[in-house]
Amino acid sequence: MLKALSLALISLALIPALSTASDAVSTNADSMLRGEKLYKSACIACHGTGAANAPVLGNKKAWAPIIEQGMDKIISVALHGKGAMPARGGTKADDATLRAAVEYMISRAQ
């Protein structure tokens, strides 16, 4: 009886951890959807066509040297612009949504 009670208590103790893991997966999925939405509404103009030498979504060879620079550098470029790319890609996206779009594009290049 004591063993069964102990197992039940341990199981109950794990529920918050499982819930947190589920929330993290949900948050990541939501972030990816926000990133894809921003990509499709703004970033696609250049990153879908290669305009102004923008690396095209899914082109692993073009994205490889960019990814090697690290996420901090990539986010800085997204925030402040570079070359023909305006700051924030010409959008009014908040930092989290802009980061989600960058993560979405990188995920398609790996």
Task: Give a brief rundown of this model.
The protein is mainly alpha-helical.
Overview of the molecule:
- The chain is an all-alpha fold and 110 residues long.
- It has one domain: Cytochrome Bc1 Complex, Chain D, domain 2 (Orthogonal Bundle), CATH 1.10.760.10.
- The protein is 71% helix and 0% strand.
- The chain is built from four helices and no strands.
- The protein has helices at 2-47, 60-68, 71-80, 95-107.
- The N and C termini lie far apart (52 Å).
Regions with pLDDT < 50 over 5+ consecutive residues? 5-12
CATH superfamily caption: Cytochrome c-like domain
Structural class: mainly alpha
- In round numbers, the mean pLDDT is 86
Strand content of the residues, in percent? under 5%
- First-residue to last-residue Cα separation: 52 Å
What is the annotated CATH architecture? Orthogonal Bundle
Shape label: globular
The total count of strands amounts to: 0
Instruction: Provide the domain count.
Output: 1
Task: Specify Rg, calculated over alpha carbons.
Answer: 20 Å
Strand count, sense and barrel status of the largest sheet are: none
Helix segment tally: 4
CATH class: Mainly Alpha
Q: Spell out the helices and strands N to C.
A: HHHH
Q: Which fold does the CATH topology refer to?
A: Cytochrome Bc1 Complex, Chain D, domain 2
